[in-house]
Amino acid sequence: MSHCWEKTLISEYSTIKQALAIINNEAMRVAVVVDKDNRLRGMVTDGDIRRGLLNDLTLTDSVTKVMNLNPITVSQNISKEQLVELMERKQILSVPLLDTEGKVVGLETLHGALSKNLYKNPVFIMAGGFGTRLRPLTDKCPKPMLKVGQKPILETVIKSFIKAGFSDFYISTHYMPEQIHEHFGDGSQLGVSISYVHEDTPLGTGGALGLLPDDLPKDLPLIMINGDVLTKVDFQRLLIFHIENDADATICVREYDYQIPYGVINGNGNKITSMVEKPIQRFFVNAGIYVVSPHIIESVPMNHKVDMPTLLEQHMNERENIFMFPIHEYWLDIGRMDDFNRAQVDIHTLGLD
């Protein structure tokens, strides 16, 4: 039994945001909802929250709106062998231990779930942009090589993938590529493989896919990410989501709120039907992280200029098989100077430096 299981407990009166903080900060990756007497009310996983967000819930809603009301539980007296057999059969990674009164007295995890998985899926990083909005910092340095904390943004991105179990990297370059080559080489110093594709002219966020070698795995999706994105997204869960949905492509999306600074009037002719003071509009925006199946990559000709939204929209019209994956973990697109300054502060609290 994990020694930190008590940190996963959360009151039934808590919000989704409070449950999310536990899921993101604790190794158990679940929140266990209990009443005032520590009796189990439900469990919340990363997937429960994502489904809630897609159903228009907000982080301030009650955790009871997303929790699983009937999670699998076991007696605190169950043997280790029985517990492992149950968890493997039910394909669950954690299970609460209850006493005879239904109170939570522990949380057990499947041993293998906490070990580091290794992935052969390629990771493709877009690092060719000019970074014009960060001038003069980018006059003599490509944006992905700007330092956030003690190391370049691109190094932080690569190391976050290495930590998650990925080892096969491709980097797309255009602006000042020699600085990227010199810093990373073939990746051997990091214990991974790094190859480069060079855009002689900018090909858009999707066009660089046409430069990838023909010997990529034909049965594994590729993860694609902009080289200026800092995130703690769970890449394993992203891949599982993509595979389980048999998706052609999966786009990571981030909820974005925009408050209209005026009262909005709705009417029918000259007659007012409703008035809303400074309403908040909620949208999902592209987070610059994708999972792409091999046939999408193969559809991009060499040196063909196309942006990812345009490319994926073409495939969406053909098969309607493009999915979105809401991310609630930390995410920052370092596109402007205030983003860069914010990253300098955030990096020390994220465990990425």
3D architecture notes:
With 353 residues, this protein is α/β, with parallel strands linked by helices. It folds into 2 domains: 5-114, CBS-domain, CATH 3.10.580.10; 123-346, Spore Coat Polysaccharide Biosynthesis Protein SpsA, Chain A. It contains 10 helices and 19 strands. Strand 10 (168-173), helix 5 and strand 11 form a beta-alpha-beta unit. The longest helix has 12 residues, at 153-164. 32% of the residues are buried.
Strand order of the largest sheet: 11-10-7-12-17-14-18
Please report the first level of CATH classification, the CATH class of the largest domain: Alpha Beta
* SSE succession: EHEEHEHEEEEEHEHEHEEHEEEEHHEEH
Mean pLDDT level? 88
CATH superfamily of the largest domain: Spore Coat Polysaccharide Biosynthesis Protein SpsA, Chain A
**Main beta sheet: strand number and arrangement?**
7 strands, mixed
CATH-derived architecture of the largest domain = Alpha-Beta Complex
Secondary structure tally, helices? 10
What is the count of structural domains? 2
Task: Quote the CATH topology of the largest domain.
Answer: Spore Coat Polysaccharide Biosynthesis Protein SpsA, Chain A
Measured distance between first and last alpha carbons:
31 Å
Helix/strand structural class: alpha/beta
